[in-house]
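User: Please predict structures.

Assistant: First:
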Amino acid sequence: HNRPRMTATVIATPRLRLIPATEAHLRASLEGRDQLAAAVGCAVPASWPPEHFDAAAVQYTLDWLKRYPRDAQWGFYYVELPSDGGGPGTLVGAGGFKGAPDADGIVEIGYSVLPESQRKGYALEAVNGWVQFAFSQPKVRMICAHTLATALPSIGVLKKAGFRQTGSGHDPGAPAGSEVVRFELMKK
């Protein structure tokens, strides 16, 4: 028995569009850049995918979306920089939520920007878009993020977005022996 699918909404920020991934987008991503470009309707740079969004991560996200179709808004998003001329934009990164808020009202975010699109404020703008969306939902009271202690640009993004470091974190995908730190942002 198929549960109805929740269609997640694109989140617009001042310069970006955060496009919720569908099963079709994720399947196309596994096939290749051209297929992803056709599915999402954006240019996909040769440097795609961004760090931490390899085929295993895409497959995990696809499996999650199949299990929780009504929670699509709490899943993965493609980060698009729209074109000035009104044509197709370009994907500059990816990220979003690692599932729906838990029983305590906590949701986790993650993100990654392509190397040539870093240091332009896109990660911060995307994080702020996800934060605004999450805190607009009544059940969310806190957002957390886990990053490597050595990932200074990522830590900088979280601090600029108002997160504070709360101690050790956990990331099953982190390289063995790496220190992971946890950041949290409480709803005001």
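Second:
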Amino acid sequence: MSATHLPDTQNKADTRNIVIDKVGIKDILHPITYIDRDGGKNPSVGNFTMTVTLPEHVKGTHMSRFIQILNEGPCEFNSSNFGKIIDKVKDRLESETAHIVLEFPFFRKKKAPSSGVESMMDYQVTLYGTLDKGNSEVMMKVVVPVTSLCPCSKSISEYGAHNQRSHITIKAKVSKDGELHIEDLIELAEKKAS
């Protein structure tokens, strides 16, 4: 039996001259390990969206390469080295522009205010990474559940007021030469709650 050669359609020249802004994969769940500010390893499950831009002369891309990048080794990072995975996507898919959005729960021990009992609290974290023609940017978003004292209840209550649960969302840019810690953003938000 003779081997059949399948044509590589993605690598054929495209004569339509159409740029595709984003092509890739969305909502891919994959195990990750996030390195916290103390160097601790925090296992979690990441939800990845990974895209590249296709120039006008390229017909398509190999979607399996996105998954290969995730499977190549331990998916272990923090905000300062998150850019390395974006570089890999850009290089492997031969594009000048790459985008990654990664959402994951970050768990941290927290003491209850009155009893002092510690339990695990989850915070929703999103990392956004973009590499566009050599310029990279990483953003971090953290959603922090907080409790605040109801001002109306306090003003009409003789003995005590009730609390309201809410969420504070912080989105910050990671500096080029620095690192942004999830814990710092959580602590900043919790200081602003009453």
